[in-house]
Amino acid sequence: MIRFRTEGIYCEAGNFYIDPWKPVDMALITHGHADHARWGMKRYLCHEYTVPILQSRISPDIKVQGLTYNNPITINGVKVSFHPAGHIIGSAQIRLEYKGKVVVISGDYKVQDDGLSTSFEPIRCHEFVSESTFGLPIYNWLSVEEYNRQLQDWVLKNQSIGKTSVFIGYSLGKAQRIMKALEGVDKLHVHYAIGKLNQAYESVGIKLPEYHTIDLREDVKYLDKGIVILPPSLADTNVINKIPNRATAICSGWMQVRGARRWRSADAGFAISDHADWNGLLQAVRATQAEQVYITHGQTAVFTKYLNENGIAAQEVETAFGTEDEEEDTNNKLSTEE
Q1: pLDDT for 220
Q2: pTM higher than the cut 0.85
Q3: What single string gives the DSSP state of each residue in 25-51?
């Protein structure tokens, strides 16, 4: 039912693409991150919560239709429905059914409930398309509650020694998780790239903690000993040096690996991820009971080999997913860096 073409994942029977990386007529989008939702499609179909994100990140003038979860429609004879992926707001696994065969394209996902995204829903299917960003046994996340406690304790420690706590996390998904974790600890200050996407959350009725949007081109001495959340593009720029007495923490699944903090000039690292860890990936794949699994990005070789050795037919496929670089982050770096 699906083919992996130069434009992206193509459903032949329905004549549409899922998360295409080149312009096409009809694009079904799993979620709003820039490596899955790109500019140039004539029409977009996504979960209703992803609509304002696409309009914010791509253009307010795009032709886009939003669906609710578990609400099937038919496109050229193919039954299409969106199901929770647990990755970020509005993230969806896309289920395709045609002539008795079911294929699920999961996009990015996590099985851990973060309290903001709709929880992952296992779907039985004949073929399953999965990521493997953290598809190595070394990646095993702690509970959301434990990470929240770690972030809170770090802020309190910094305040006791006169430090400003600066958290680095993606503007879409990660930043909002950091905000939720630190609600009530102190006033939250977020970069305007994050504030812009917060508005997309709030436009669909998702309540976020109270926050103040900052512009680092202005005098920010008032941030001293406070909490600041910035996108990754600002982590190694001159702009961040304006923040007084700062201690910087990277929030990323890559922080699970010892020494990963050396990748950037950071004082701390927290392994907070919007992707499934090793056990989460295995749990999700096994729950599908799929006859064939396609692994699109991440630790594809290791994860594919493990699945095949354990009786699950798996195949690596080459895609343009996995960069997770945010266009807004890049644009804001250019507009704010001195």
Answers
A1: 86
A2: yes
A3: SEEE-S-SSTTTS-TT-SEEEEEGGGH
